[in-house]
Amino acid sequence: MDTHDRYSQYDRTKLTPVRSLRPIRLLLAAATAALTLTAALTTPLNPAPQRAQAAADDGKDVLTVAVAQSVDSLSPFLATRLVSTSIHRLMYEYLTNYDPKDNHAVPGLATKWEPSADKLTWTYTIRDNSKWSDGKQATAEDAAWTFNKMMTDEGAATANGSFVANFRKVTAPSPTKLVIELKKPQATMAALDVPIVPKHVWENVGDFSKFNNDKTFPIVGNGPFVITDYAPDSFVRLKANTSFWRGAPKFDELVFRYYKDQDAAVAALRKGEVSFVAGAPALTPAQAASLKGEENIKVNDAPGRRFYALATNPGARAKNGEKFGDGHESLLDQKVRQALFMAVDRKTIIDRVFQGHAVEGEGYIPPRFSTYHWKPTDGQKLSYAPDKASQLLDQAGYKKNADGKRVGKDGKPINYRILCHATDPQDKAVGKYLQEWWGELGIGVTLNCLDNVTDPWLAGEYDLAFDGWSVNPDPDFVLSIHTCAALPATPKDTGATDNFICDKQYDELYEKQLAEYDPAKRADLVKQMESRLYDTGYMNVMAYPNAVEAYRTDQIESIMTMPQDAGNIYGQDGYWGWWSATPAADGEAASEESSSAGVIIGIVAGVVVLAGAGAFFTMRRRATAEDRE
Amino acid sequence: MTAEATPSLVEKTDGPAEAGPSVHGPRARTRTAYLRYVAGKVGGAAVSLLAVLVTSFFLFRLIPGDPVKYMTGGRQVSAEQLAAYRREFGLDLPLWQQFTEYCGKALTGDLGTSYQFNAPVIDKITEALPNTLLLTGTAFVLYTALGVFLGTRAAWRHGRLGDRLNTGLALTLYSIPSFWLGLLLIIVFSVGIGPIPGLFPTGGMESGGEEGFAYVLDVAHHLILPVITLVAVEYGQTLLVTRSALLDEMGSDYLTTARAKGLRDDLVRRRHAVPNAMLPTVTLIFVNLGRTVAGVILVETVFSWPGLGGLFYQALSVPDLPLVQGLFFIFAAAVIVMNTLADLIYPLLDPRVGR
Questions:
Q1: Could you report the predicted ipTM of this complex, rounded to two decimals?
Q2: Matching InterPro entries, A to Z (chain B) (predicted)?
Q3: Whether A183 and A324 share a structural domain
Q4: Residue A396 belongs to what domain range?
Q5: Closest in A34, A52, A261 to B142, CB measured
Q6: Would you say residue A83 lies in a domain?
Q7: pLDDT higher for A13 or A204?
Q8: Residue A7 has pLDDT above 90, yes or no
Q9: Mind telling me how many Å the CA of B301 is from chain A's nearest CA?
């Protein structure tokens, strides 16, 4: 469908009616007072513009990140937005983490994990050197309590309930031992992205569906940072947890500041008010281009975790066998699906639409997840070849009529409706190209760009659709959405399915990989699934968009990307980036002084202008009667 | 604004020629008439409010999209979780039942729970309302004062260079899209260009971590650019309305009389012309005052101001029905209340109204 990224009390100048003052003068005075007051507020007393900078007055190193989302909830049981879950990564340890080099599971709160011989019991060893920020020891009991809460309380299962769906029982026989019993084998047990919360704090919570964890600060946690302050729709402030078991972060404070407008965020980066801009979900090519070559700014054009695909409607159906929707019957033919994809010039899409900020798509899982990334073999590959595509369509029996239009089995010219996100300029641009390319094949294209594609999507009322998902280090979820089990129970229900794919061969491989505890063998099975998916032509990956982000090198000396060689920073699976970031040596002291001086100049100029304007109007008033006569 | 209107009333009763009729009868009759007028206006407002309450429920259910599908879209959710969401939001109930529940709760001041923030709607609104009022309120005072001031000047010297410059500038600024102007101000005055230093923050309402007076200063510092943006694009309207209203009065005989009495020109303007020309401006002022509550989506977005406008946008994109309904009701209520207040004030400004 779409990626998960988509997903008072102040200066009130009162107009007190003072009789002796004449109304106009009163207004003038009030307006001047208001402006002068606000101007005066910017005196060096308050060097706010540079507050966010790496080197602040009080010697604290602050790293400010401009984010494009506001926090939905600070409760890990409710939060679903990327900004919130990224922050939870920093607040709480998970059982395991992902290696920044190649995403394999590495110790988090657990130091070791192993399955039983029957594959149904997993035993985790919990580390004894992780303390909650209030001084209490983090134990297996906290983990067991967290999972049990999610299994028993509907409200607590809101965000991450799917992780415990296959759990039978969770116990903590000792403070360092956690035992999870499963209903059936599950290979993803080292990829449980569930924040473990302190039982002694959370057991007092009443209604988990309403508790947002945003009233008492600091919030008790055991991750690399601790939240100390939060203003809804504005910012989240965290301070370094100096007793973090992996070692204290190098920055003293980390602030996530919400910028509703990304051009303003880019301006803030240029100014140095923020150290990092993530974009939403990436900087646009224009923004990236404007920052390139700028002194002290690095644009990180990193391989992304998303794929961008053209999904076909394989004939929507429910688990009970009922068919629904109105997908074009010609798309049920594999040859047609493949022919269509062969007429898509992926290189042009990368060059023109993404302006180079993407990688040409092949297999389902993006290359940054090297363990699972798969490429089609030479014989299998559906390269761009419009002539071959034309032949393939002829073979499939969809021939051109006298007008040069291909006709369907019903004798009518073929015209496909493509679902596109009205808010996504890429969808529209690619759609225009498809109209051109497929038009040459003799196939008509109608772009159906909607604000809300969910309704026709779930009703199966489309022929093709632009599709994209953010992929996790463990591919289970993005694979599961193409299984028959994910179909809706009846046409009225909503299933987890992405676009109603139900393929027996694929499903068999899916079951096998889920029960395969040997990483190498599992990776091989996953690749076979990708190969199968590629051949079916249901999901045609056109591109892997890059994660384009930027930061100030005069504030951040170094920061770990993920994957480490060439990867992104914001929205990593893990806390590596923010935890590893080191402040630049002497920060911005110089620029701060100059801009304080700037503030003074600005105020003086403002006051002079205002005074001048005031004087001008007063004089005009004096000049009154004589003037008119 | 009131500062402008009040003295004019004082002037009237002070004037020796205007000593009111001392007969008891007509005055009592006037008062009854006024009370009847007030009752009519207030009653009408109450009916409008009720209508808004009802409409907002059905209106926003016409937005395509299922909030549960949207919120769980792109995530790993089980059928049980989906059902739980529906139960939680009351979306599994028939529409009429949802409606009666909504009305019952609304009458007790409970506007429901936001889907996306899992928090009471009233909390989300009270959280953002002061922010919005601070921004739009400050801007309102400034642009109204500026608009009325420049409008009267422009009318009084209409046709002259000053008038043409003033009116031209106001029209130009009035036609500039606010987000574009805001972005321009950020680039010039926040980031700084050439010799102009970056004086103001690029967005937000506070730097965070400030307390007491430092906090007030910090907020004021963040307030300047968005307020300037709003004042620049808004004052033109007040200016033009004030100017044209005053121009209508300019040729009136009573002004000639006033001049003939030997009054100074600006006294003629202030005591005689302006009070009579205020009616359209007062209407506009109250309409603007009502609008201040709704916030300003574009300016709030450009400056990342945590106000109601931005909240409304976030609510609509889900659609977060309880939050949308709650905000819509508050916005509509503010406009209705302000319009009613304006209606109540007219008879005081112009005794012919409400007779």
A1: 0.79
A2: BPD_transp_1_N (IPR045621), MetI-like (IPR000515), MetI-like_sf (IPR035906)
A3: no
A4: 306-545
A5: A34
A6: no
A7: A204
A8: no
A9: 5
